[in-house]
Amino acid sequence: MSGLKLFRTDTTKSGMTEVMPRLAEIEADVQGLVETHMETLLGIRFLASEYSTGPVHGGRIDSLGLDENGSPVIVEYKRGTDAGVINQGLFYLAWLMDHRAEFEHLVRGRLGVTVASQVLWSSPRLICIAGDFTRYDVHAVREHRRSIDLVRYRFFGSDLLGLETVASVSGGMRAARRARRQPVVQAAAGVHGVAMAELAGAVDEVLLGLGDGVNRVERKQYRAYQRLRNFACLCPPQRTKLLVYLKVDPKGVDLVPGFTRDVSGLGHHGTGDLEVQLRTPRDVERAQDLFRASYAEA
């Protein structure tokens, strides 16, 4: 995987053995493993496998799911490198957008009426998982106005799976960073004053600037920052503070009262078990290591 090498230590002989990467024997091996553990691997709730698009359209979607923010997701798999995987996925994505009621019916049957009523149609996603991609594939996704993730897989030994994001593009991320920041500041300024507006804008810029492929997803209750899966959720400003939820294990953090809090098992908007409370620009600086840790986890 792009220069990654994996070694197994031999504690008895103080040696080191390289675990050689390999592709799946057949495409179905990758699909079956990902579908069984889709929420752990991708942050997506699995809905259906080999979903028929009907006799007129004449296709079968490899996997259908719903991500952490309620966005519909199509996952397509290829054992090795296949130049047609992106176009095939976009073909199915167009079908999905024309059959929203059918998808919501599927969600209702699997996840319930409440979840089905909250499907986020503004940002449907396509995830392509394959043995590898060409530079033409990477260029192609940047030319489309859709949210697309290219993910390279490798098996290591008999019990290890590696996933590497090769490219990630959001259909809603075409504007310049300065322009993207404006709505956050304006929304906050109208209700919470200049201080919270500036703080919200600073957090937005820091999270977007953590690396390539950061997508921003708008929900009424929160704004999600997403790599392959959410790594941060920013809630609307309160009168004197901002709340950010991160995908960081609170047990590995020295919690500071009034700054960080373990919210695992507690209900809140967005995703993540670590709550970070931000009141000043200094707090944003203090939180940057936590932001980076959560980004790396995603």
Layout of SSEs?
Elements: E1 6-10, E2 15-19, E3 21-22, H1 27-36, H2 38-42, E4 44-52, H3 54-57, E5 60-67, E6 72-78, H4 85-98, H5 100-111, H6 113-117, E7 125-130, H7 135-142, E8 147-156, E9 160-169, H8 177-208, E10 215-218, E11 223-226, E12 230-234, E13 242-246, E14 260-262, E15 274-278, H9 281-297
Parallel strand pairs: 6-7, 7-8
Antiparallel strand pairs: 1-2, 3-8, 4-5, 5-6, 8-9, 10-11, 11-12, 12-13, 13-15, 14-15
Structure description:
This protein is α+β, with helices and mostly antiparallel strands and 298 residues long. It has nine helices and 15 strands. The chain has helices spanning 27-36, 38-42, 54-57, 85-98, 100-111, 113-117, 135-142, 177-208, 281-297, and strands at 6-10, 15-19, 21-22, 44-52, 60-67, 72-78, 125-130, 147-156, 160-169, 215-218, 223-226, 230-234, 242-246, 260-262, 274-278. Strands 3, 4, 5, 6, 7, 8 and 9 form a seven-stranded mixed sheet that branches. A hairpin with a 4-residue loop joins strand 1 and strand 2. Helix 8 (177-208) crosses helix 9 (281-297). Residues 173-189 have low confidence and may be disordered.
The gross shape turns out to be: globular
Content-based structural category: alpha+beta
Intertermini distance: 17 Å
Q: Rounded to an integer, what's the Rg over CA atoms? A: 21 Å
What count of helical segments does DSSP give?
9
Report the mean per-residue pLDDT as an integer: 89
Strand count, sense and barrel status of the largest sheet are: 7 strands, mixed
Give the helix proportion (percent range). Answer: 25-40%
Low-confidence stretches: 173-189
The sequence of SSEs as H and E is: EEEHHEHEEHHHEHEEHEEEEEEH
Q: Approximately how much beta-strand content do the residues carry?
A: 25-35%
Number of strands: 15
